[in-house]
Amino acid sequence: MNCRDLNTIYAYLEGDLSAAERSDFERHLARCSQCRSAVEERRLLLQAAATLPPFEVPEDFAAGVMSRLGAAPSRATVFGWLVAALAGFASFAATLVVAALLTGHSLSELFLGFNRFLWDNVRNLSFVVTKGLKYLYLAGKILAQVFQQILEGLKVMTSFIGPEAQVAAACAAALILIGAGVVWRRKFLWERHHDE
Amino acid sequence: MYEDQELVRRTLRGDKGAFEMIVRRYQQPLVNYIGRMVRERDLALDFSQEIFLKVYASLRSYRPQYKFSTWLYKIASNFLIDYFRKKKIPVVSLDQPLAEGDDCPKLQVPDGVPSIARKYELQEMRAKIDAALDKIPPALRELFVWRHVNELSYEEMAEIKDLPVGTVKNRVFQAKEMLKKLLEAPA
Q1: Are residues B65 and B139 in the same domain?
Q2: Which of residues 51-80 of B touch A (CB under 8 A)?
Q3: Is residue B74 situated within a structural domain?
Q4: Does B173 reside within a domain?
Q5: Whole domain around residue B155: which residue ranges?
Q6: Is B105 part of a structural domain of the chain?
Q7: Closest to B105 (Cβ–Cβ): which among A5, A52, A61?
Q8: Do B79 and B9 belong to one domain?
């Protein structure tokens, strides 16, 4: 038994040693005063930590939490989206009114000005979007060619195996893909919810 | 006694009493954990309330195949990380390597330093640990409290922090040895 191994001492105190390791360590303890002292010190430390006085929780703590609960646990609903859209429209209208009061322009002038501004931006954006779509189309064309080559390759490779084996391989590949998708989705949801 | 998952299901069906049972079940361990982290009872009570409200608001995102307590502690831990960040208390990442030599635990009994077992009685030791906890980094304190106050398993702690079990064990070990050194230091 290595008498410099503190991890063993903690594992012994926390009951993590196997029966054989435990009796081996206890035999060592019987003849090593340095380890006995180390065990006693750490036993006292853990014992004191485990018996630290709990923080007093008032009787009405749970009632306090319950009185502050809002509506039922949230879920995005059509109603929620509608409320958000209405709130957005209301803030826009309020901004227009405030701007009309501050600048002295009429509401229709402001609205037309805003429309012009919006239209200019939409036009500029449409050029960018068109360009983006063009690049996407090119990328799609390249991908289709790569995919075609892969299919050709697969065709050559599968010409050596029978149709049953081909179906089995396709099913296995589909199952692996679905399984990976499910695992990824669960992991993603779990992490996302835990990071909230 | 209902399982946590059953209480969650009932809460989601609109039974607020079921959520109250969850609060009552976890209020003491949560307040103990938060209290040992922030060192103030009133703040711990306020934070625990906020955490239960967060839990309620996001209850639909809880996946019943996981332990409810793991999910609760994860939300609480993230809440505290935000708090320590706002207070500008450095939150040491648990992924960072330990200081040189700390991964190779050695048994050292220096000459002339009285053993803490001889120095303090259990009662006194509790008070000393309580004070010493304040002096270790929050990330290590959290793991120590979970393990030795809340009595969570290393596996659950690893799941809460998304870390390998070995890393969690190493960090708890480091926290214990830090505490021991602080207790040995002259007052």
Answers
A1: no
A2: 52-54, 56-63, 66, 71, 74-75, 78
A3: yes
A4: yes
A5: 116-184
A6: no
A7: A5
A8: yes
Asked whether residue B20 falls in the same domain as residue B81, the answer is yes
Question: Count of domains in chain B?
Answer: 2
pLDDT in tens, B25-48: 999 999 999 999 999 999 999 999
Task: Count Cα atoms within 13 angstroms, Cβ side, for A93.
Answer: 6
**CATH of residue B26:** 1.10.1740.10
Identify the pLDDT of residue B115. 62
| Cβ atoms within 10 Å of B22's Cβ, excluding its own | 23
Residue B110 forms part of a structural domain: no
Residue from B47, B48, B43 nearest B25 by CA = B48
Q: Determine whether the interchain pair B109/A9 forms a contact, defined as Cβ–Cβ distance below 8 Å.
A: no
Confirm or reject contact between B166 and chain A (CB < 8 A): no
Task: Nearest by CB to A57, from B31, B58, B122: name it.
Answer: B31
Burial A3-20 (b: 16+ CB within 10 A, else e): eebbebbbbbbeeebeee
User: pLDDT-derived band of residue B112, with 50, 70 and 90 as boundaries?
Assistant: very low
Q: Give B34→chain A minimum CA distance, Å.
A: 10
